Amino acid sequence: MTPNILLITADDLDATVPGCFGGTANTTPRLDRLAAEGMRFLRAHVPVAVCQPSRSALMTGRRPHRNGAQGFEPVLDEVPVLPDLLRPVGYRFGILGKVSHLAPQERFGWDTVRTEEQLGTGRDPQAYARAAAEFIADAARPWFLLANAHDPHRPFHDSETEHAWWPEETRTDVPPPSKVFDPEEADPPGFLPDLALVRKEFAEYLSSARRCDDVVGAVLDVLDASGQAGNTLVIFLSDHGMPFPFAKANCYVQSTRTPLVIRWPGHIAAGRTEGSHFVSSLDLFPTLCTAAGVDAGPDLDGRCLTSLFTGGRQAGREHMVTVFHETAARERFEMRAIQTAEQLYVWNAWSDGDRSYRAENMFGHTWPAMLKEGTENSEMARRNEFYRTRCPEEFYDLTGDPHALDNTAGTGRHRKERDELRSLLLADLQSHGDPLADAFARFAAERRTT
């Protein structure tokens, strides 16, 4: 029987925040329940850590430079999008939130559209529930519903920015989360300093993550009430990591790792965990085509995941390549990275010793707090300066440095491993026709001679 497909996305949710991925207790109870009923992927990544390119890659199965959406451009006319393949076998298509982040909108041919404004700025669980219930009520044909929560994207719950954007007297359609976190229970991730303002902002972020979970729960409740859950493939993931320094709009592990959960009754046993293969959101395109019984075509960068659902093995999943092209402000900071379970290598094509990095992850309290701390703390000052200017090459031994705090690329340490990852990255960029493959080949040749 052709399955329905419910694809739920979070906006800027770090992979380690959900409880089922080791996060703060009681942050995401509904996602935790979904994970218990399905399968968690511990090494899942998106190809690029910014919203529209990440979502475009998911819906095309192609890397940003091959689908046209390296930044906030539309998908190329000649590139098939998922509805092109599923509509001929009878699927209806609906989208809730983040509508403008899949462009051009007419290419996707949505039968039902609910914008951010119609969903309480993309943060009202009951608005999502009403829209989902209306869409899936027609069970005569299989359906594909893309439910995009706008949390935990800025502005965070109860933050100064939220109050400025949505004054309290007009904020009736932006409900509070079902749990609000305080700074004492909001331990920052290890790549950020433990400062008072960082804790404050991270607590606001966790509260927004809980409201995202409220949206997840509301949509899943509607699915359960419809009686269609048994024939519905449910997928949850985030478009990239949190909007903090050293995360979103970069190529670090926490930039692109996503909390991927898949539930498919009759195909995936409850409580499964896949932690030995690197998988990508690019893989969802061919996976969904397989589930729907259609040919995804040969010209894809993703690979079908279905054999992993039952414990199978797939060769070639020992590493992950990620990219970055353009910030939300349309500034280009070209980066390429490759990671294994033990190491991370990053090439910053933009870093020339003079240019300064700027991105949306520097908004809010955290980056100013880091700068202030740097006036008295030389180590913090060094890390701040590194973040702004980087260096052409970064290498991290993740076994002893899981938060990538110690860049050893300019030292004699890990030379063999660094050279190996550089070569692997070059081969990957060349095989996928990356627009900077030739530039990286020249860079790699220079490094081999020094």
UniProtKB/TrEMBL annotation:
Domain Sulfatase N-terminal intervals: 3-294
CDD domains, sorted: SGSH (cd16027)
Organism encoding this protein: Acrocarpospora pleiomorpha
Protein name (Swiss-Prot/TrEMBL): Sulfatase atsG
Gene name in the database record: atsG
This protein's UniProt keywords: Hydrolase
InterPro entries associated with the record: Alkaline_phosphatase_core_sf, Sulfatase, Sulfatase_N
Family membership noted in the UniProt record: Belongs to the sulfatase family.
GO molecular function: arylsulfatase activity
Top-level taxon of the source organism: Bacteria
